[in-house]
Protein 1
Amino acid sequence: MSRAAHRMQWGVWGRVLGVGGLLVSLSAAAWADAEADDGAALSLADTTPLLSRPSQTGQVFVEGWVERAALRPATTASHHGVGLDLRWQQTLTPAWQLQWSDRLTFDSAAQGSQTAHALREAFVSWRPSASSVFDLGRVNLRQGLALGYNPSDSFKADVQRSLSTLDPNTLRANRLGVVMLRGQWFWVGGALSAAYAPQLGDAPRTASAFSPDWGSSNPASRWLVQFSHAPHPLFNPQWSLSGGEGQSPQLGLNLSFLLGSATVLYGEYAGGRDRSQLDRAAHLTDAPLAWRQQFAGGVTHTFPNKLSLTAEYQTSSAAPTATDWLGLQTTPAAYGAYRQWVGQMQGLTTRRAAMVYARWQDCGLPQHDLTLMLRQDGIDQSRQVWLESRIAMGKTEWAVQWQRQLGVPLTVYGAMAAKQSVQATARYYF
């Protein structure tokens, strides 16, 4: 990359960071007016399922969107679509409950129309006592405290279906669940859970739009054990051990520390014997095993004006080094296969990455949320910028999203087909 191009990229990046700096300055000025809510800071982690649930609840909405993208090298494309989203749960008796989550989308683009159906969750829960609950069916079990990358998430591979947004919270909520039997036991300050997911298929992403896609969610038999106990109100560790067919046991650890009244320091770790990501993408089953470890950690601060800022660092010793990454780019077939594989696995493309995430609720107007996300690869220095403005008006929700990828060809973000895109979405809740 020339010095001029490098300065231009950092100039764009600097302007974006300048906007983030303005948000921080405005929030810091408001800090002196009120105390932050502890619960806002602690909302980073996924909560355990509630033991007392409503007798009936649900959410149904329909949405439509239109998107315009500037493609590489110098073309444009547009597409539009509609989606129907359903989430429903029903308590049959004080001890039994049903839960269902489903989404149907129709997307029209120049390459052709596509209909997709995602059965995200469908399971029955049995609560024999106030301190235990058992689930059977398709469950979206989300693990990990980190926001942009979750090394300890045992069930994240090949289950991402809704790509209408880059927001990591929405992506985790909209993915396919895994068919499993799960038991959970609770006590004051701690919990124990165990899950077993059987193999139901080995052919993911079938051609049928309405297929339940068991091969994606349950390609092999897997198991998971989690244990957590908080020795102190400000410190909450969680241990996990997972494994399955064709995989060595993997150790997971999630830690969170409450610093002050509205700041959370968190870390997420996973380690175990495994092949490198390049070997796994190439299906080299006889490749050597070695101890591989992944980590994601950061800090989140919530200001009294409802602005939440997160900075996160991510690394994986299983991902390619700088030398490996440059060598891979010289082999187009291997490069393409690896990019497709790592996307399905939701892993890090290269060894290091970083992310900044800012969400400002009720920004300027009630029910108006502004979200900014910045991602940067630590090896090739390519970057991604995503900005969303979302406002709710009664039963209707309007949103505008903008994203841009910065980087030379074949870098993590420079290789993406869309250099820049804008999407407008309208959503109506029934």
Note: The chain has seven helices and 18 strands.
Protein 2
Amino acid sequence: MKTSLYASLLLAGMLSPPAFAQTPSSDGYVLDKVVQVSRHGVRPPTESNEKLLTSVTQRQWPTWLVPLGNLTGHGYTGAVEMGRYRGQVLRTAGLIPKGCPDASQLLVHASPLQRTKATAQALLDGMFPGCGFQPTYVAGKQDALFQANEMPFAALDPDKAKAGIFKALGGSIEAAQARYKPYEEKLREVACLPGADCPYGKQPWVLEENAKGRFSIKGLSAGANMGEVFRLEYSQGLPLDKVAFGNARTPAEVSSLMVLTKAKYDFLNDIPYIASRGASELMNQISLELKQGTSFAKKDAPGTPPDVPLMLLVAHDTNISYLRTMLGFGWKLGDYLENNIPPVGTLQFERYREVKTGEYFLRIAFEAQSMDQIRNLTRLDGAEKPLKGDFASAKDCRKTSVGLLCPLKEALLKVDQNIDPTALTPYSFQ
């Protein structure tokens, strides 16, 4: 069951065409559909991570003013600014009108956690100030679109999952830990008080499987969570003597403490088999949306989402990392480590039509505010723009004034090729 008057308005207007003129770019491309998948904004550590970090470091971590895991006020404001910027870009391109669009022109759907629902609201408030739009979300704690990796229909084959994990580890978890030992020692220096009996970094890494069939690496998890929390502290605007206990005063220094955070994703999330099981449903909905209104759309296909110019999905870094892995897409932006997904980082699918030929193209890109832009709540205007990287999703892509455009047919083949039909479930946004 979805929430809010917005949902009913969406249903009422679903079949209405856009009531505004689209604006061709200088070289003749019209933006006619956008799907965005955004991570939530800045939050404190989750309750389980807070307990873990306190236990392994034996020291008090900074106090946050909102419940653990919830979007902060700073995070909300940063997401509003990203929404304002994206709204400006989409208006300039003619995808959305000035003022308030009607409900037929957008679908905004969030993962059912406070931080994602609040981020979706912030993005809407930034894109459409004063319009009163609200995101939709399912009742309960699990949405098959975002939490498929926790649900039976996308269950993992343990042997296949472990094969992928050990390949990523380089064959041995012990050898992997040995390679990363210098980074563990660096985190010990940062997080443990001198002379204290600090447990962090003294335990061997162990691959564990939980009751839902998902895998984690005990020992690595603490260091990975630690790096993410340091980045969140910096992004939140905590005094520099509080960020990483005074040991990270620049974005580059923060990122240097996130090597184990990246390792966790390399070993557990960025595994093609695991990613395909965890995000096939999400990728399928994106693909169905991008095909709407073209010859590639299947008539009466079950579970087809509403045909809207703008679909905004607000989720988690796990969701985006799965999609990135399925696409074979990577990025290195600013001071962030490779493939890092900052707060409100957004994977964008932009469909363009060439006015001269009527041919469709797809731009896939990742866009995110820099660490300092988030920390300082920088207005994204003029020279201050988000960081972004484009993906060549097919052969014969072309550089244009709007970015790297790839033929839609070939790009959709790339999008579809790693969708696992056995990891799909009937889905509806209504």
Note: The longest strand covers residues 29-39.
Protein 3
Amino acid sequence: MLEKFFKLKENGTTPRTEIIAGITTFLTMAYILAVNPNILSAAGMDPNALFTTTAIAAIIGTLVMALWAKLPFALAPGMGLNAFFAFSVVLGMGHTWQFALTAVLIEGVIFILLTAFNVREAIANAIPKSVKTAISAGIGLFIAFIGLQNAGIIVNHDATLVSLGNITSGTALLGLIGLIITSVLVVKKVKGDLLIGIILTALIGIPLGITQINGFISAPPSIEPIFFQFEFSEIFTFDMLIVVFTFLFVDIFDTLGTLVGVSTKAGMLDKDGKIPNAKKAFMADAIGTTAGAMLGTSTVTTYVESAAGVSEGGRTGMTALITALCFAVALFFSPIFLAIPGAATAPALILVGLYMLGPIKELEFTDFSETIPAFICIIAMPLAYSIAEGITLGVLSYVVINLIAGNFKKLSIGMYVLAVLFILKYIFI
């Protein structure tokens, strides 16, 4: 049945490969179950309810991606978007978390409409192939950077922005040990190398006091304190307009970047460079966001950590299905899953970053009208800590450079429209 539904042989994969890929994706993104409640609770929301809501929102969005779009991508409340929710909208602008949830709901509904009328797919198709290739490489550097941060190998420095952490002890040492172990598994071409690396690293962390398991089973907390909590009295205010637009912009291009980048890495783009089932993938994101708002969480988006599962060979919706099932299990075994430290998943993210650099060999490095915007896109993602900003600067530089250089044939109407929107975004937001 699985073979027929997901067309495993047609996509060059097997049930075992898809299962390993799904579990790997889950383990690399399971941190959201702990991080999202921590961030959103700063806005005054119930952290216990947020744990359950985060898992359920991830399950809903990922199931839609698995069963409808049939793509190997997982969804959950997005990092960055949750921080904007809590620290900018609530703590910064002084609005209630109910106001912020209402903005997320409106964003989700707008997304459904934009997707239904193919607007998001048109945006994806308007981006030139060189920038799409750059998106994959940029995401690779970005998630490698996230992995290095999660392990404490790279840390904040007031003078130089970043610096090498204390790699002789603690999480940084564990991360490096895990990186060596996982790298050897990769070199030896061991099936499930990333997943095995995560598990072994987590186990090594037990005697080091980094991996701490406090129990095994617990019932999921009630979501009643945050379920369907909206504030419709201010939906026509200027503040609501700004907040909704910001959510829309960041989510559009974060999701777009992830889908393009990971699809490029997996060799899933068609001959025209388009994402398969793009409309359904975008709709999964839109439905996830709308459902997430009703449940009581910030914007749900496609996770860049899906690249870890793709690197394990995941090619169909079965990968996403397994990831969704893992989130369902996590609801009842949260102490175990939450015990996996960031240092244990860091090696997988770092190596996936390497895998995602591959497509840059397709760039024509003698054509600087293509490679300069591509380079700007690549380098901006980790340094600006945003997939959306990388895409924005990549597209803007592509349009400006080719416009001034007189390469008008390279520029479509869609590119001009995107450039204008991006300029307006920087002016008003």
Note: The two ends are 49 Å apart (CA to CA).
